[in-house]
Amino acid sequence: MPDAISEPATAPLTPTHRPQPGRSPYVRLLSTPGALAFTLGNLLARLPMGMFSVSAVIMIAGARGSYALAGAVTATGMAATAVVAPWTARLVDRYGQARTAVPATAVAVCGSLALLLCVHYGAPDWTLFAAYAATATTPNTGGMSRARWAHLLKGDPAALHTANSFEQAVDELCFMLGPVLAAFLCGSLFPEAGTLIGAVLLITGVLVFAAQRATEPPTHGRTATKSPLRARGMPVLLASFLATGAVFGSMEVVTLAFADEGGHKAAAGAVLALQAAGSGVAGLVYGAVRPAGPAARRHPWCVAAMTVLLALPLLAALTGSLLVVAGALLVAGMATAPTMVTGMTLVQARTPEGQLNEGMTLAVTGLLGGIACGAAAGGSAVERLGPTAGYAVPAAASACALVLALIGYVRSDVRDRT
């Protein structure tokens, strides 16, 4: 059995371990015993999440000459992940992060390598779908990291808010750098390089992360508690994550089309990276301040801010300038991280004890489903109305998220009063 799933040499840390005073909330956060080690491992494991789909598209389209096939394969993988990921997370809650994440990652890496070999040696198209579907067992490494923070910082909501903000900034960093790194590797080395190096980073990061047994949350075994889907307040919250995912998916497709129409297709990646950069910086700033009021009250305000700011790209597109749109996306992205941080805080609060990984994975699954729906809606709008009008799709999706957030808040307020 690998060292990563052996028994810890030292007694596990308890939630009473608190970060000591430091120069900033993030210094205090990472001074928590064992935090830096599992954070670095998780960073290695999370970076490939932004690499795999781009690498697969470049690899398949280059070898088979069909972007339609490449898109269909990656969409199949996303659909498989939406089905499998919650079950993987349930096993993580039941048997522990190390005992579940390592073999699940091994299966996913085998799927990535199988895809690489099938593409390289010209295997039938159906094998590409089967191989990429196998990568759906990839564990939600971001969720596992958040679960560790929730365990270590139990009873300290201010520190947990900083931790959630930090994790959101890491998400943005990985999804900003991942596609750029994948495109560079596939273009400068060989078409399969992005998939190959992504697989190596994933298994290495998960092994390093899983080896940090002292910070791993305790398991709860089998539980008779109802599914997180049935927990109070969760259905409408997950629906808001679905709408938020539609914002991301539609924004990416519409921006690519807008850049392509203006003859600046090569700059589209950098423009989208600005949105992620704005979100990452805002997340770090948001995590450094102590939020006022409960998360249930803050959530509609954050979504409202996101809805207002998402009108900026639509207005900027009317100028026809990609540079103006880039600036608008940078500003619009600044409301994304606070919305996600507050939403994840609510997921943690509403998920039944012992099912935290499953609850957070359901939120991520909602985002993935929304991204797929948003991409389809954005593409349809671009074809029918043009890229400029297409920016109305993410604005409308954000408005839907706001309505759902308000419904969730009103329901929770009514329950609190009764």
TrEMBL record:
InterPro entries listed in its UniProt record: MFS, MFS_trans_sf
Assigned keywords, A-Z: Membrane, Transmembrane, Transmembrane helix
Transmembrane segments: 35-60, 67-89, 101-123, 196-215, 236-258, 270-289, 301-318, 324-347, 359-379, 391-410
Region annotated Disordered, chain positions: 1-24
Keyword hit for Membrane: yes
Keyword Transmembrane: yes
Signal peptide from the UniProt entry: none
PANTHER family linked to this entry: MAJOR FACILITATOR SUPERFAMILY (MFS) PROFILE DOMAIN-CONTAINING PROTEIN, PTHR23542
Protein name (record): MFS transporter
Organism: Streptomyces aureus
